[in-house]
Automatic annotation (TrEMBL):
Main location: membrane
Organism: Streptomyces malaysiensis
Keywords (A to Z) from UniProt: Antibiotic resistance, Cell membrane, Membrane, Transmembrane, Transmembrane helix, Transport
Gene3D superfamilies reported for this sequence: Multidrug resistance protein D
Membrane topology: Multi-pass membrane protein
Domain annotation Major facilitator superfamily (MFS) profile: ranges: 7-495
Single Gene Ontology BP annotation: response to antibiotic
Record's protein name: Major facilitator superfamily (MFS) profile domain-containing protein
Length: 514
């Protein structure tokens, strides 16, 4: 007898919310900057801390779900997500918003880690296939809808509404979950690797902070050096802890398999190259070109729209192609799209300059994303399939977090160099002007210029922002091309059917679009 679809509704609603909160903030950043007087670095952290918390806690959340109950942890995740969303919506300053976004990432990790185990425990046979198809479709829809929904809420309500809208949605998801989903657990004897989780979190956080601080304060700064050293020590500690664990977060022996190691690198670089530069493109569209939040959201939809169509329409066709070729080809398209964006964005360009490159990158994402997790599962032993799935999604989220940090640092440095070299701004005010341009306050730079120099100030804003976008798109493009060539050279194997069924020492997580 066909099971009720209410559990699917509860799980896909939570999945949609946690994924849409990755991109919904993009189109609101200029308004956040003005409303909270936030600096460029603060805006980076608003975007980055959510993905960083999600990446750092995803694998340990899977262990906690197996130990304490997946339904229970999903409900806890929803509650944490709702409370932190309220804190984001009421944040009086950038510091509180960043802290609340970190807690939001914690709730998202609990929700994400329990999504697919709950679906697998609730549905079987043909119903399971339908459930995962709907669940995967909401993942692609979240990527497409996020920027537009963020623009609509920001323009017609307030930027705080992008967080407050989560409250009624989480309430609905909790109500359906309590009434329709049964509890399930993993195999007995599961233990949480707290030392591994702690060292991994410190490593990821220290590295991200060091990369951001280095761009702001300089690479010889004491805080920069200290944070990078802490990250290195934490990485060594993680390796030592995991090597001695019977139930590690990540079996390091997997990384000695060339195919698995390359796939983890591909997951990280795909996410780092495909999505983070859209954050700075959103600032360009609004603060430099003067587009409304809704218009800015619509301007970046070619990527998500094409990837959603390709991923949905090409599923059966992709099953006939070796996953390494599909993933490698997708990465090459993502890289080419980023390089096209670099070539098209000039000081006098408008929003249409981004459309061809975004569509090309979207084609690559639509090819690469659906096979990424299945390729990782195929490269790991059956008894490590759940761990492999959790690892690839962790590397993906970590790639987004590090991409924001690295590309943001490069972008801000390039803008600062352009302002310094222009001679249009007095030396004593150059740093402040560069910070205002990169942080979404370009209109303040133009307004502060004497009337006779207003046109020169406006030209400087356009030139410096275009130079910054050009530089980060080139870096993103080269990274994706390198990853694509590496995958094509290393990842072997012919076309295959669905990935092997995971053995539940870890909760598996499925591929999603950012």
């Amino acid at each position: 007898m066909r099971r009720s679809w209410w559990p699917l509704a509860a799980i896909t609603l939570g999945n949609f919310m946690l994924l849409i909160d990755v991109t919904i903030v993009n189109t609101a950043l200029p308004q956040v900057a003005r409303g909270l007087d936030a600096s460029f670095t603060s805006l980076q952290w608003v975007m980055d801390i959510y993905a960083l918390a999600l990446a750092a806690l995803l694998m340990v959340a899977g262990s906690a779900a197996d130990l304490f109950g997946r339904r229970r942890l999903y409900l806890v995740g929803l509650a944490v997500f709702a409370i932190s969303s309220l804190a984001c919506g009421l944040a009086p300053d950038a510091g509180v918003l960043i802290a609340a976004r970190a807690v939001q990432g914690l709730g998202a990790a609990a929700m994400f880690a329990t999504n697919t185990p709950l679906l697998m425990a609730t549905y079987s046979g043909r119903d399971r296939g339908i459930a995962f198809g709907v669940w995967g479709g909401t993942s692609g829809a979240a990527a497409a809808v996020g920027p537009v929904l963020g623009g609509v809420l920001t323009e017609y309500v307030d930027w705080r509404a992008i967080f407050l809208v989560n409250l009624p949605l989480t309430a609905i998801a909790v109500w359906i979950t309590v009434r329709s989903i049964d509890e399930s657990r993993g195999v007995p004897g599961v233990r949480i690797d707290w030392p591994g989780a702690a060292s991994f979190t410190v490593c990821a956080g220290g590295l991200t902070y060091g990369l951001m601080r280095g761009g702001e304060e300089g690479w010889a700064d004491t805080g920069t050096v200290a944070s990078l050293v802490v990250a290195a020590i934490a990485l060594l500690a993680f390796a030592m802890v995991e090597r001695g664990k019977r139930q590690p977060l990540l079996d390091l022996a997997l990384l000695r398999r060339p195919t698995f190691a390359v796939l983890m690198a591909a997951a990280l670089l795909l996410q780092a190259a495909a999505f983070p530069y859209l954050t700075y493109a959103g600032l360009w569209l609004q603060s430099v070109l003067g587009m409304s939040p809704v218009q800015a959201g619509l301007a970046v939809t070619p990527m998500a729209g094409v990837s959603l169509v390709v991923g949905a329409a090409g599923g059966r066709l992709l099953e006939r192609v070796a996953p390494g070729r599909t993933l490698g080809g997708g990465l090459l398209l993502v890289g080419t799209g980023a390089l096209v964006n670099a070539a098209m964005v000039t000081p006098d360009a408008d929003w249409t300059a981004f459309a061809p490159g975004l569509a090309l990158a979207g084609l690559g994402i639509g090819l690469a994303m659906p096979v990424l997790v299945s390729a990782a599962l195929g490269s790991a032993p059956p008894e490590r399939a759940g761990m492999a799935s959790g690892a690839v999604n962790t590397f993906r989220q970590l790639g987004y977090a590090l991409g924001i940090a690295v590309l943001g640092t490069v972008f801000a440095t390039r803008v600062r160099d352009m302002v310094d070299d222009s001679g249009s701004v007095p030396a004593r005010a150059a740093g402040q002007a560069a910070e205002a341009i990169s942080g979404g306050h370009a209109d303040a730079v133009i307004a502060a210029a004497p009337p006779a120099r207003a046109d020169a100030a406006r030209a400087l804003v356009h030139e410096s922002f275009a130079a910054g976008l050009d530089r980060i798109c080139v870096i993103a493009g080269i990274a994706a091309l390198a990853a694509g060539l590496l995958v094509l050279a290393i990842v072997r194997g012919g076309p295959g059917g669905p990935p092997r069924k995971p053995t539940a020492e870890k909760s598996p997580t499925e591929p999603v679009h950012a």
